[in-house]
Every structure is written in structure tokens, then in C-alpha cells.
Amino acid sequence: MSDVGRQSLGDKAASAMKPESEKSYVEQASDAVKGAMDSVASAVQPQESKSTSQKIGDAVSGDNTNRNLA
């Protein structure tokens, strides 16, 4: 349950790989909403309850201020 409300690293990568010019307006809006929800979930979820993949993803993307991977 530690990753509730979080995007997987695969989903983030897939979204980032497709150029914005090739996305429909619905895809762009969906990406924006999912990104915002993921950022909020990252900020409120305690670091010690995050999975390793989410800790790494947050550190790489800068989605939270606590980038401690431990």
C-alpha cells in the first residue's frame, strides 16, 4: 500500500518518451493531472513508507524535497 496514488516509473518514462506534439489534448491533460497527483502523493507520503523504486523516482525527478534514498 506504500505506492497508493503514485505513478509507476514505467508510466512516467512512457509519458516522457512520447513528444507532446504527438499527444492528444486528452493525453496531455491526463499526464498533467497524473503528474500533479503524483507530486502531491510524494510530498505527503513519509519517506520511510515509500518503496525503493518510488524513492529513486522522487530523487531523480525532484518530486519531493526529501531526496534521501536511505
Automatic annotation (TrEMBL):
Domain of life per record: Eukaryota
Region described as Disordered: 1-70
Protein name, per record: Uncharacterized protein
Biased composition regions of type Polar residues, renumbered to the chain: 42-55
Species this chain originates from: Naganishia liquefaciens
